């Protein structure tokens, strides 16, 4: 499938996500403005600091543009802070922090520990064993009935999907293994109006 996947490039490890996508033959586009978003079929939302990213999405006018594209069934994969921004409820976010309410999960920021408590664990996923890199990772505290759990860590969901939205607590872009990005690409339904 010939798709263009945008990588939200406001903050975080967006370049590493672009490299993973390019390594599996996908054309990428850094998304910083609503005009950039118009060029893509799907979107990667990387990790970073979720409240800062929320503010940057507002100041760049991307928040309403992304919301509209999600409502039109654009496929989105959010990792770490990206997952927080896609969630329905941020349990410990700033008062002014917004989310897209795109996947029916409640999350708690940094709940797997501080930076010094970062860790890696092998996870069972739809693409087989995958190394999950957890850095100040959010915890999914509840999921709605329409959410499919694709991977768990000690009984807690860490990779979930609902319709066109995929979300991970961990950083798949830091492993050198692009299979999870390839899996995301395989789920993309193209809805871009040309």
Automatic annotation (TrEMBL):
One matching Pfam family is SNO
Q: List the Gene Ontology MF annotations in alphabetical order.
A: glutaminase activity; lyase activity
Catalytic reaction(s) noted: L-glutamine + H2O = L-glutamate + NH4(+)
GO biological processes = pyridoxal phosphate biosynthetic process; pyridoxine metabolic process
Is this entry keyworded Hydrolase?
A: yes
What InterPro entries does the database record attribute to this sequence? Class_I_gatase-like, PdxT/SNO
Keywords on record = Glutamine amidotransferase, Hydrolase, Lyase, Pyridoxal phosphate
A cellular component term from Gene Ontology for this protein is: cytosol
NCBIfam families recorded for this chain? PLP_synth_Pdx2
Instruction: State the protein's name.
Output: Unannotated protein
């Amino acid at each position: 499938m010939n798709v263009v996947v945008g990588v939200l490039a406001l903050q975080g490890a967006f370049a590493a996500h672009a490299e993973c996508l390019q390594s599996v033959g996908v054309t990428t586009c850094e998304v910083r403005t609503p005009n950039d978003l118009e060029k893509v079929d799907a979107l990667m939302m990387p990790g970073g600091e979720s409240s800062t990213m929320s503010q940057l999405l507002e100041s760049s006018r991307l928040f309403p543009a992304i919301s509209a594209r999600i409502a039109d069934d654009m496929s989105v994969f959010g990792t770490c802070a990206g997952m927080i921004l896609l969630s329905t409820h941020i349990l410990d976010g700033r008062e002014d922090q917004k989310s897209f309410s795109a996947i029916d999960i409640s999350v708690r920021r940094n709940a797997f520990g501080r930076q010094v408590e970062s860790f890696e664990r092998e996870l069972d996923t739809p693409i087989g064993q995958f190394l999950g890199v957890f850095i100040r990772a959010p915890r999914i505290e509840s999921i709605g009935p329409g959410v499919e759990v694709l991977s768990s860590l000690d009984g807690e969901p860490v990779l979930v999907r609902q319709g066109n939205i995929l979300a991970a607590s961990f950083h798949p872009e830091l492993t050198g293994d692009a299979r999870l990005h390839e899996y995301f690409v395989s789920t993309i339904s193209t809805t871009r109006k040309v």
